[in-house]
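Morning!

This is the sequence you dropped in the shared folder:
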Amino acid sequence: ITVIFIFAVLRTAYGLTSSDLTTLDSAVREVVPGNVALLVRLAFHDCVGGCDGCLNVDNPSNAGLEPLVEDLDAVYVANSLDTLVSRADFWAYAGQFALARAITNTNLACDTADANCPVPDLNISFQTGRVDCSTAPYTDVDVGLPSSHIPYANLTAFYADNFGLTEEESVAIMGAHTLGGAEIDNSGFSGVWVRGGAQLFNNDYYTLLLDDTWRQRDVSDDATDPRWQWNAAGVGMMLNADMCLIKEVELDDDGESSCSYDDCAASDGASIVQNFAASQDDWLEKFASAFTKMQATGDFVLSDVE
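The structure's back. Tokens below.
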């Protein structure tokens, strides 16, 4: 009910009819089950280089997203959504819908004794006007997605250069990793970021980064192609790009760290992680700001909902 209400308000604001609302919502609902984390991931991947409703499925960094793009395009075409929004707008809408669904899931699972419950709406405004690439929904363009071993300074520079994010917003948008996980067949990495919480949207990601039981291990069964990640028993999994938010990990070309969690110095982002772990509200505010900037990236003019 919450999700329907949110998007009903948005629809009225940007001038689509109630019938259009039913069509768009129904289309998204066909794809959302089992794909909440993937829809948020696609929203990010699409906007690197500009949100244009196009994905290079031959890029290994996009592994696992092709079936989702196929499903989205099937409902986009079947429902003639091109008369309402571009594919890029539809993907942006689906990403916001997925976040709202994750928050609903979180609140349904809330412990009333938890000070972080319920999680409030992000209040991210949906805007239209994104322009699809000429070959949508596919492209052969390599937009330069970040490596899983990217160090902190490069990570924050990437977000600043691509989306205009501040340092705090850069750390905040990484919190999307509270959703979902990694699969060997896609990225070569394995596990969920937050064990027991892969469908929930809260600040557990930051809380778990402060756990002192993290150990790095190679999860690949191919000695010539190692996949170094961080694991903590009963806690979850982190990539080097996650761990660099809290620790100054020193990596070789394969991604193996020369220091342990205990021995690595604190990274420049450590104080931000600590703040987001202590204040879910602070994280949600910065995340909403970062996600809004990300979805506004590209050569187009957006029409605001207000």
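Headline: Residues 1-14 have pLDDT under 50 and may be disordered.

More detail when I'm at my desk.
O.
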